[in-house]
Amino acid sequence: MDFIFQNVLNALQWGSFYALIALGYTLVYGVLRLINFAHGDIFMVGAYISFFVAGFLLGPLAGLSPMMTFLLTVPLTMILTACVGVTLERIAYRPLRRKGAHRLYVVITALMCGLILEYSNLAVLGASRLKFPELVDKQIWNVGGVAITNLKVLVIVAAIAVFLFLQWVVTRTRVGMAMRAISYDKFAIPLMGIPMDNIIVITFILGSGFAGLAGLLFAMSYPVLEPFMGMLIGWKAFIAAVVGGIGDIKGAFVGGFLLGAIEVAVVTVFPSTYRDLFAFTILLLILWMKPTGLFGIPQSTKI
After folding, report:
1. Other C-beta atoms lying within 10 Å of the C-beta of residue 293
2. What is the three-class DSSP state of 143?
3. Alpha helices (H) in the chain, listed in sequence order
4. Residue ranges per structural domain of the chain
5. CA distances (Å), origin 153, targets 150, 237, 256
6. At 303, is the pLDDT very low, low, confident or very high (cuts 50, 70, 90)?
7. What does the alpha-carbon distance between residue 45 and residue 175 come to, in Å, rounded to a whole number?
8. Which residues sit opposite 146 in a β-bridge?
9. Residues 226-278 pLDDT 10s
10. CB neighbour class for 132 (10 Å; exposed up to 12, middle 13-18, buried from 19)
11. How far apart are CA 6 and CA 13, in angstroms?
12. Between the CA of residue 186 and those of 133, 202, 212, what are the distances in Å?
């Protein structure tokens, strides 16, 4: 029984990483119908930004304590990572959107933006891995034979808090109402006086900021950074968002935890080399039975 509870906790931690990234995917898609394939690399950029921010705050120029450094690194990382996401939207996506480019070209542009982020990191910082500093003293609580660390609790609580916050923004605020309106009919929105570009910028700020938070938490949990760390986890988070029903915040959240649970369950029974094979096969079966995802609904296309 202890073994089961321990693996459930591990699944919740991994699912939290996937959910945080998947929420950014589904938020942008829900507003723009754009699959931002550069989002996984924004997660990577957020991890590197947190590394340099923490190093600066811990260094001789600031000399802050690790806990104070952590409290300042979280908002600074989210703000700076959000700036990266907004820059991509302004330079790469907005010109295509204003020219009425086909979605295929926008998707290709997103893929190229991700590659630019990866290889720019590789060119500037090199291929050597970086070790993330320890910002929070690791504490282990043994509850009924289950080892619970403060970092795991922090990651899980952060994912739940982000989900609740986004759910509130989308369903209870004027900005969320504008997001849903753009998703429904982006051509009529400017006629109603809603600043569509501003709402899209807010969407990228939220999605990229929370990707930066995921990068920080991932770096704290697994303190080894490398330029391609966002590629695989970004694709997995995208698949989780699709399985949950891309465009639906609740679906992205559930899909992330579902993927984490499947991966941990496979590893407990089979060798780790079978993890991705079994996980993606199960997710493929789910999509085969319900192509719109767990919480997705069929949508008609206006012609």
Report:
1. 23
2. strand
3. 2-32, 39-58, 66-88, 94-98, 103-125, 150-172, 174-184, 196-221, 229-244, 249-269, 275-289
4. 2-131+139-289
5. 5, 20, 17
6. very low
7. 27
8. 143
9. 999 999 899 999 999 999 888 889 999 999 999 999 999 888 888 888 888 88
10. buried
11. 11
12. 44, 16, 28
CATH number for the region 2-131+139-289 comes to: 1.10.3470
Count of other CB atoms within 10 angstroms of residue 53: 20
Q: pTM for the whole thing?
A: 0.91
SS3 130: strand
Please say if the pLDDT value at position 70 is more than 80: yes
C-beta of residue 181 within 8 angstroms of C-beta of residue 189? yes
Answer for the pair 163, 18: CB distance below 8 angstroms, yes or no.
no
Choice between 194 and 25, residue whose per-residue pLDDT is larger: 25
What confidence score (pLDDT) does residue 143 get? 78
3-state secondary structure of 146: strand
Q: Rounded mean pLDDT of 193-220?
A: 92
pLDDT tops 50 at residue 54: yes
Q: Average pLDDT in the 144-173 region?
A: 91
Give the amino acid at 231.
M
- Give yes or no for residue 298 having a pLDDT over 60: yes
Contact, 248 vs 179, CB < 8 A?
Answer: no
If we measure between CA atoms, which residue out of 194, 207, 214 comes closest to residue 89? Answer: 207
What is the Cα–Cα distance from 299 to 28, expressed in whole angstroms?
Answer: 17
Residue from 6, 2, 8, 9 nearest 154 by CA: 9
